[in-house]
Amino acid sequence: MGRWFGASVASIKKRLLIFSALFGLAFLSGVSRAAQIDEHERKLVEGAKKEGRMVYYTAMSIEDARALAQGFESKYAFIKTDIFRSGHERILSRLNVEHKTGRHAADAVIVGEFEIHHLKKLGLIAPYHSPRAAGFTEGLKDPDGYWTDVYDNLVVTAYNVNKVKPEEIPRRYEDLLHPRWKGRMALDHNEDRWVSNLLSIMGKEKGVEFLRALSKQNIYIRRGRSLITQLLLAGEFDLQITAYWYRVHRLMRSGAPLRWVGIEPALLALHPISLAVNAPHPNAARLFIDYVVSEEGQIVFARRGREAARPGIKPEGFPGQLKVLPSRPQLAENLEENNRLFEALFLKGVSP
Q: Would you list the domain boundaries of the chain?
């Protein structure tokens, strides 16, 4: 109010006119953008009605995949949605074979960030700038339009409260090297993504030094993070170095004696969606991508307790104040090297 006090009536009127004009322009711009999106959707719907079908490949759980398909079909009842659910690597292999034989079946693809990098590099996905992805922040969508993040896996450190004292809880990665943790921790047998991001965070020299020291802590190695979390609950070991937040959170809500801590920056594993190159049903595919990244589609994930990627839409209990680091797809370039490092240190017991 201080800037207005003492101003002349004419000056105040002039400022009000300027403010009104700016507000009007902003309003008209919003209306124009909404109209453009509506027209974009109308054209896609027109084409999708002729196609009548859409196929998407995904590595997410079949329950989550079906929930997403049901939400999409409830909005666009004229489209029948088919799902091919498999592991990341098998999806990558299948798309590669389809491309080489010219028998394209996939319309849209939802896989991990490293796989999406390879799909882009191999020319197996096509760019599509979804107007519904405008609100996604940097790191959650490809600047060239090849992918938009759909949901995330927040990686945290989980522990059994019956086995870990409050003063023992690790706050930094270096805390895991304390002698008290020897023989008490577990890792998945496949931690190449975690290793790649860890080396990116710490720097290669310091990161390798840390991993060498960690490998001497007699780490339990098991196959699958879900299984490891269950074994943690059963008391087979005391701490899971890399756990998925949503799984620990679900167990905590059911009364399980588990807790988690986010060692910052906490890794955010991405699961982007892309338009398959030469998609047989391109209009339905684009319509599906628009739906998945829209508020409506993202709420499907949040209601199921999954970490929706869209800013402002998160499941109940999500730690919004935790400093997170979205995993960068480009780190896939060093994946084989980092996988060999992990195997040498943790699976073979031989220093590289």
A: 31-152+270-319, 154-268+325-347
Distance CA 62, CA 181 (A): 36
For domain 154-268+325-347, give the CATH number. Answer: 3.40.190.10
As a whole number of angstroms, the distance between CA 179 and CA 176 comes to 8
3-state secondary structure of 111: coil
Tell me the whole-structure pTM to 2 decimals.
0.85
CA atoms within 13 A on the CB side of 213: 14
Nearest to 208 by CA among 198, 218, 222: 198
**294/67 Cα distance (integer angstroms):** 15
d(CA 351, CA 341): 8
> Which class in CATH covers the domain with range 31-152+270-319?
alpha beta
Q: How far apart are the first and last CA of the chain?
A: 67
For 216-249, what is each residue's pLDDT tens digit? 999 999 999 999 999 999 999 999 999 999 999 9
Contact predicate 80/53, CB 8 Å: yes
